[in-house]
Amino acid sequence: MRNLSIPYTADLLVTSGKAPQELEDELRFLLATKLFEMHRLSLGKAAEFCGMAKLNFMFELGRFKIPVLNLSDDQISDELLDD
Long-range contacts of range 11-15, CB-CB < 8 Å, 24 or more positions apart? Predict the structure, then answer.
């Protein structure tokens, strides 16, 4: 497995008010969320990426008002025209 390292300063910890592991978990979640929104990761892969169970990841997406059904315009059109 490949590893990604993102350096950050102590200032970020202070302004976030989080412990280092909490901040890193949040950053990993935010990256997974953005990749999911961009259709770069599936729901399951995004959840796996940030170390969450799929159901927990779905719940967190809902808290941030991010749709769990992440369909493209073409997919939505296809769904509506299937009748």
Answer: none
Residues in the chain: 83
Rounded to whole angstroms, the Cα distance separating 4 from 11 reads: 21
Report whether 58 contacts 24 (CB < 8 A): no
Structure tokens, 18: 């989080």
- What is the Cα–Cα distance from 42 to 61, expressed in whole angstroms? 13
Q: What is the DSSP string of the chain?
A: ---------HHHHHHHT--HHHHHHHHHHHHHHHHHHTTSS-HHHHHHHTT--HHHHHHHHHHTT--SS---HHHHHHHHHT-
5-24 mean pLDDT? 91
pLDDT given at position 70 = 60
Please give the model's pTM, rounded to 2 decimal places: 0.79
